[in-house]
């Protein structure tokens, strides 16, 4: 059903996570990854057309965006935060879990014994109390952190699943182009002087959610997540990775090329 059908059985035959990550290294060298997130622009795109355009491509879905492209998702990026049960329609989807390093064993137990979900990959995200938010990738703008997934089998606090799993996974796979779909980051103007956006759910594709999205990032956290994209653009250039954005609201650096669904 998807391109992962060719190798998923071999992937899960390896006993250790280190072996599995090593197996994936450069698996899609010089290919294009379609990295899908849960922003409201996702569901503005015609679902049938997206599935038709991407059916033979490498599709990586973050969290609830799986529910929009379930049948063609190759890799599902998921965490225990704001978790909702997933009904996978594609037996070849690789389930990749990012875990909180300080609570990793408890989260593994919860996934397997409480939620009954499969784990094909997992890796720890180093966050508090081991580092402060000021040590995260968005704050330090040290995007070489994303290379850790293939070496130390861990990543640093993003914040955000695309900064912790999405872009590191694309780098691990060796792609030369990333097209983001539904990556809207957020709108700090909606905070209206509050530390948190009181209507954070509105910054998501709400129809895909059955669980609470939580309180969302703080104003300063989201501000840094947006502003770091200027250095992010230059980092991708140095890695010879082209990034295009399918979103009409993403506030990332304007040097990133914006595209429409017709351009896929």
Model description:
The structure is a single chain. By secondary structure, the chain is of the alpha/beta class. It has one domain (3-82, 91-263). The chain has helices at 8-13, 17-24, 47-54, 104-114, 137-140, 161-173, 219-227, 229-238; strands spanning 32-36, 58-62, 75-79, 94-100, 121-126, 155-156, 177-181, 242-246, 257-258. A 9-stranded parallel sheet has the order 6-5-4-3-2-1-7-8-9, sandwiched between helices. The longest helix is centred in the middle third of the chain and has 13 residues, at 161-173. The protein is globular and about 50 Å long.
The best one-word shape is globular
**Percent range of helical residues:** 25-40%
Strand order of the largest sheet: 6-5-4-3-2-1-7-8-9
- Poorly predicted regions are none
- Mean pLDDT, all residues: 95
Structural class: alpha/beta
- Largest beta-sheet characterization: 9 strands, parallel
Q: What is the number of independent domains?
A: 1
Percent in strands: 15-25%
How many strands? Answer: 9
Order of helices and strands: HHEHEEEHEHEHEHHEE
Helical stretch count? Answer: 8
Radius of gyration: 17 Å
- In angstroms, what separates the terminal alpha carbons? 20 Å
Please specify the SSE layout and strand pairing:
Elements: H1 8-13, H2 17-24, E1 32-36, H3 47-54, E2 58-62, E3 75-79, E4 94-100, H4 104-114, E5 121-126, H5 137-140, E6 155-156, H6 161-173, E7 177-181, H7 219-227, H8 229-238, E8 242-246, E9 257-258
Give me some keywords for this one.
264 residues; alpha/beta; 9-stranded parallel β-sheet; 8 helices; 9 strands; globular
């Amino acid at each position: 059903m998807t391109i992962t059908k060719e190798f998923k059985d071999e992937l899960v035959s390896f006993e250790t996570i280190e072996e599995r990550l090593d197996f994936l290294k450069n698996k899609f060298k010089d290919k294009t990854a379609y990295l899908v997130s849960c922003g409201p622009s996702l569901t503005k795109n015609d679902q049938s057309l997206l599935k038709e355009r991407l059916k033979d491509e490498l599709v990586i879905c973050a969290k609830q965006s799986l529910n929009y492209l379930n049948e063609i998702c190759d890799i599902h990026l998921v965490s225990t935060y704001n978790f909702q049960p997933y009904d996978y329609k594609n037996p070849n989807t690789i389930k990749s879990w990012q875990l909180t390093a300080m609570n990793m064993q408890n989260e593994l137990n919860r996934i397997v014994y409480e939620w009954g979900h499969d784990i094909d990959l997992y890796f720890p995200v180093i966050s508090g109390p081991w580092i402060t938010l000021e040590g995260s990738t968005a704050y330090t703008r040290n995007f070489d952190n994303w290379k850790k997934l293939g070496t130390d089998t861990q990543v640093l606090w993003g914040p955000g699943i695309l900064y912790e799993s999405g872009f590191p996974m694309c780098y691990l796979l060796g792609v030369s182009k990333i097209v983001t779909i539904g990556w809207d980051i957020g709108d700090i103007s909606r905070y209206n002087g509050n530390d948190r956006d009181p209507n954070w759910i509105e910054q998501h594709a709400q129809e895909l959610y059955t669980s609470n999205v939580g309180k969302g990032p703080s104003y300063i956290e989201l501000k840094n997540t947006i502003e770091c994209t200027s250095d992010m653009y230059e980092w991708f250039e140095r890695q010879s990775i082209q990034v295009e954005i399918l979103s009409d609201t993403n506030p990332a650096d304007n040097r990133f090329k914006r595209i429409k669904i017709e351009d896929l």
